[in-house]
Amino acid sequence: MSGMSKNPREALVRLAEARGTSLAALSTMLGRNVAYLQQFVGRGSPKRLAEDDRRTLAAFFGVEESVLGGTAAGAAMIEVPWIAVSAAAGAGADPGSERRLRPERFSPETLMAVGIAPRTASIITARGDSMAPTILDGDRLVVDGGDRNVGRTGAILVLRRDGDLLVKRVIAQQGMLTLMSDNPAYAPVTVSAEAVQPIGRVKLLLRMPQ
Predict the structure, then answer these.
(1) pTM
(2) Alpha helical stretches, state H, 75-207
C-alpha cells in the first residue's frame, strides 16, 4: 500500500479508517477486550502485536505483516493451501470440489506453536451455526491432517460422515463416537467409529469481523 507509514501503530489507524471499521471492532475480531488495539495505538501497550493478531489483521486488510510490525517481506514464510470445500457446523455439507484458492502465509513459528507440520496443513471454511460461539459461519479453519486421533478430550475435528463434511467436538468411548456441538440447540449424536472418517484436527481459526 503506497504511502503507508513505517510506524505500525499509525499504519493500523490508517488501515482501519480506510476500511471504515473501528479499533474496538478489530479487537473483538481478535478475541481481545475492546480496548486492546486502542491501548496498543495510544499507550504502546503491548509494544508489539502478538504474531497471531498481526497475521489476522494483515490478512483482513490485505497487506504484508511487515506493515504492522512483522517480518519483512521476502522472509521465509510457509504457504498453507486454502481448499474450496466447506465443513458444516450444522447438519452437513457436501464437500464439493477440492479446488484450491489463494493460500494463506504463516511463519514457521506460528505453525510450530500449535503443532502443525506444514505438509499436513490445509484451510477450509466452516458453514452453519452448530459450533457457535466457538466457530461461526464463514470462519476459516486451519486443519492438521496429520492429527486424526480421536480421544476423550472433546477435540474439534473435521470428519466425513455419509458423504458430508462436518466439524464437531468428538469423544471416543467403547468403540463409539459422540459428535457434539457447542451450540446447545443441537443435540449430540452417537455413531460407531466405523461410520465416520476423521480428516484432521482444527488447530487454528481465522475469523473476519462481522
Answers:
(1) 0.62
(2) 108-113
